[in-house]
Amino acid sequence: MTLGYSLTSCDKDNPIPPEPETADTLAAPVLESANISDSSFTVKWKAIGGAEEYIYLFSGEENTIKETFIDFKGLEADTEYSVSVKAVSTAEGVTDSEWSEIIVKTLESTNKEPEPDPDPDPEPEPDPEGLTFTIEDEVITCTSISFTFVPSDQTADYSYILTDTETIEPYEGNLEEIVYALIGYSGGADILRGTESIIFETNIRPGQQYSLMLFGYDGQEITSDVFRHDVETPEGEINENITFEMYANVLDSYSIFVEIYPSDNQAYYFFNLITVEEYEYYKEDLAQYIRDVCAEVGISIDTYMKHFASVGPEYDTFDHLTPNTEYILFAVGCEPLDNDVRFFTPQLYNGDLVTPSDSSGTSR
C-alpha cells in the first residue's frame, strides 16, 4: 500500500506543537503508525504541551522537526523499522522527555518477481501506447479513497493523479492538457510499474466528486491515452452532540497553528480562528458569520461549506493575522442546509491566543 497524493482546492499545513504547559519534564510522545505500504509508512503522535520541537532517531541518524508526524519513504518491503521520538524544550527548568520507540513493519511487496521459467520465451517489448488500466479493491469513505491499479502491461511505466472533478471538467476533450498542468503544479509525478495499491487521505472531503487519471509516463512525456475513473465520497453525518479536543500554538506575530480532534470522525463540523471582537459580535449566532463572509466575497453558502466544513481531525495554520491581537478558536458541529447552515453548541479553545507585537517593524 502506497500513500497517494491528491490535488484539490484546499490544503492543510503540517502540525506544530501547541502552547507550553507548566512541567518539569515533558511527557513522552505516544507513537502510532499509519499509512503503511510496502515502501513507506507514517509515524505520528499528539502534540506535547511545552514541547518546542521533537528529535527522532531512524536508521542511526537523529533529526529535529516541529511537526507531529514523520513520513518515511523508499523503504524495503516486508522489513521491520525502529523509530524513536522525544519531545524537547529550551525553556529554563524544563527537561526533555524520555525516548518513545515504535517498531513498524512494511507490507509484503504487491509486485513480487515471478519464479524464473527454466525455458523462458523472449519477453515482449513494452507497448506504452496501448496501455490500459483496470481498478480493483476500491474503498471510499468520507475522508479517504483507496484503489488498486492493474495496468494491462506489467512492465510499462505509468503514473496517476487524483483531483476534484470540477478541476478537469473544462478539459474533458483534452485530458492530456490538464494532466501536464497538474504535474507541473505539483512539481512532478510518481512513476509506477506493475500492480500498485494507493490510498489518498489528504484533502479528501465528504460529498465530493473526484477524478482519478492513470496514464503511461516516462518522467517527461505522457505515453498513452489518459484513463479516467470518477468516484464520489459519501456525505458526512450530523451529530448534535459532537465535542472537540483542541490544541493551539502562537507561532509569531502573524500566525497561529491549531489542531482539532472531533469525538465523531464521520460528523460535519466547522472551526475557525477569529478576533475577540468578531466573536463577541457573532457569538449569539455564529452561523451569521458564515452568511456575512459569503455575502462579502460573493459566493454561496453551499460553495463555502463545500470547501470549509470539516470531517475528522484537522490541522491548520492561520497566517496573515494582526500583531498584538487576541483571537478565539472555536469548533462547532453543523448541518449543511440548502444554501444555509445550522450550527449546534460551539466549543471554545481553553487558553489565551494573543499574537505578540512585531518587533521587526515589518508588516504582511
TrEMBL record:
Residues 25-95 form the Fibronectin type-III domain. It comes from the Bacteria. Pfam families: fn3. InterPro entries: FN3_dom, FN3_sf, Ig-like_fold. Residues 1-20, 107-131 are annotated as: Disordered. SUPFAM superfamilies: Fibronectin type III. Residues 116-128 have a biased composition (Acidic residues). This is Fibronectin type III domain-containing protein. The lineage of its organism: Bacteria, Pseudomonadati, Bacteroidota, Bacteroidia, Bacteroidales.
